[in-house]
Amino acid sequence: MPLSFAATLLLLYDTSDPDIAKTFDLRRQELINRVMDHRAFMSQLPAETLQTLSRRSDRAGLLHLTGHLGVILALGVLIALRVPFWWLLIPIQGVVIVFLFTLEHEATHKTPFANERLNEAVGHFCGLMILLPFEWFRYFHLAHHRHTNIPGKDPELSGDKPDSWRSWISHVSGIPYWVSQTRTVISNARGITQAPYLPNRAKPRIIREARWLLIIYAAVLLSLLISPLLFWVWLLPVVLGQPMLRLYLLAEHGRCPQIANMFDNTRTTFTNRIIRFLAWNMPYHVEHHVAPNIPFHHLPAFHRLTKDHLNQTEDGYAAFTAKWIATL
Q: 46: Cβ–Cβ under 8 A, 6 or more apart, which residues?
């Protein structure tokens, strides 16, 4: 980011007056924080700090996973038992399930758990639950990290962001997601894997995974002829819960500058503990993009180091959504 002449003078200014010097030092530090990109920021952090923050933990991951899956199981049991007002639990169940996306997302970085086999197994399970094949998504997502918010390079920009009421309603409904992912799974199963971010060595795994997913989904549909249980505790909930995930994901990079600096092209959203829990601390999204090797349970600590450098933040998802809607 180029500095104005006045800002340059401020950075260089020195004075013998203590009060004036204090004021100028504060302004100078503010400018330094504002113009420092994520690479410069990371280069100044002590190696031992990064090593500590990057340490993965099976215990932290399993405790969080137990909580997340525990909520899904508890809601599923209540729905299956048809407790009073059980139908009100269906969209809640859906939100809890679709936010397994954030765990799958973390698993692509191999950070939720220290055990790599556990990362892989959990990633595949989450992908099954939300129609997001893990092997394919791994390379899609890593390409997104390499080229975050850069047009023509970031695969997340391949679909237009909603800029009208009609496109916003369509996007938030989740229908384009389900259509796109169904096509992706079928194409992968047929061996049509031409995306530039997919390496040739991974294509056999991607094809095999897609074929297994189709077999499992076919078995699930056949099970409905015997019992509608999976429809009520899984299939219908994820359809009703998907809009919440669409709204959540819009805030990560939506309407951020399309430049290479992670402090500018990504947004951290300040929210409550429930959302942070369901999203595995991914609302600290700038922090995640600055250092994707830092696991979810260390992101709050990393935020305390980065907070003075964040250029894109929002106070809650409702506020972000309201601002987006106001421009439609």
A: none
- Give me the pLDDT at residue 99, please: 98
**Region for 131 from its dihedrals, namely left if φ exceeds 0, alpha if ψ lies in -120 to 50, beta otherwise:** left
Residue 180 DSSP label: H
Structure tokens at 262: 């992670």
The Cα-based distances of 198 to 138, 143, 150, 190 in angstroms read 9, 9, 18, 15
**Pair of tokens at residue 34:** 């504002």
Q: What b/e readout covers 161-178, taking b as 16+ CB neighbours within 10 angstroms?
A: ebeeeeebeebbebebbe
Residue 8 has pLDDT above 60, yes or no: no
In this predicted model, what pLDDT tens digit does every residue of 250-282 receive, in sequence order?
999 999 999 999 999 999 999 999 999 999 999
Q: How far apart are CA 23 and CA 25, in angstroms?
A: 5
E strand or H helix at 269: strand 268-270
The C-alpha atoms of residue 311 and residue 145 are separated, in whole angstroms, by 18
Residue 322 makes CB contacts below 8 A (sequence gap 6+) with: none
Residue-by-residue DSSP string for 194-236: --TTS-GGGHHHHHHHHHHHHHHHHHHHHHTTT--HHIIIIIH
Q: Are 246 and 174 in contact (CB under 8 A)?
A: yes
CA–centroid distance for 59 within its chain = 22
Cβ 176 vs Cβ 170: under 8 Å = yes
Count of positions (residues) in the chain: 328
Distance CA 97, CA 5 (A): 52
Two structure tokens written together for 297: 């349970």
pTM of structure: 0.89
Residues 145-163, mean pLDDT to the nearest whole number: 90
Of the chain, the percentage scoring pLDDT greater than 90 comes to 87
d(C-alpha 139, C-alpha 143), whole Å = 6
Average pLDDT over residues 87-105: 98
d(CA 310, CA 264): 7
